[in-house]
Amino acid sequence: MIYGIGTDICDIRRIETTLARRGDRFAEKVLGPQELQVFLARRERSHARGVRFLATRFSAKEAFSKAIGLGLHLPMRLPDCQILNEASGRPVLKLLGPLADWFAERRLSGLVTLSDESDYAVSFVVVEQAPPAA
């Protein structure tokens, strides 16, 4: 059963401006530990790729927070909602800490997709709830 759906569009230029103004502190407030490693590696190879990675993750986390109905209120913390990629490139949710516990208690699972083009990043999240155990 669908628990919630969320979508978000993010202006990549806004993320780049914020990153330039606040430095890596901004990335550290948004990204979880594994995401931060990917961000730093991508940015080292190409500044634009790093910014796009940060923007897609920011957008996906906003969409996720809408899908679960919490917005940015505890236990939803941006770094605790990681969007990582499988070897195939498919984005997957990896939740941490109290957010992971909250999600599991409600028997939730989530699907995420994200994309970026030119100046915008967009994401879509569907959260499903498993039926109660019989």
UniProtKB/TrEMBL annotation:
Cofactor(s) the record lists: Mg(2+)
InterPro entries tied to this protein: 4-PPantetheinyl_Trfase_dom, 4-PPantetheinyl_Trfase_dom_sf, ACPS, Ppantetheine-prot_Trfase_dom
Catalytic reaction(s) noted: apo-[ACP] + CoA = holo-[ACP] + adenosine 3',5'-bisphosphate + H(+)
EC number(s) given by UniProt: 2.7.8.7
Key word Cytoplasm present: yes
One Pfam family of this chain: ACPS
Subcellular location field: Cytoplasm
Protein name, per record: Holo-[acyl-carrier-protein] synthase
Taxonomic lineage: Bacteria, Pseudomonadati, Pseudomonadota, Betaproteobacteria, Burkholderiales
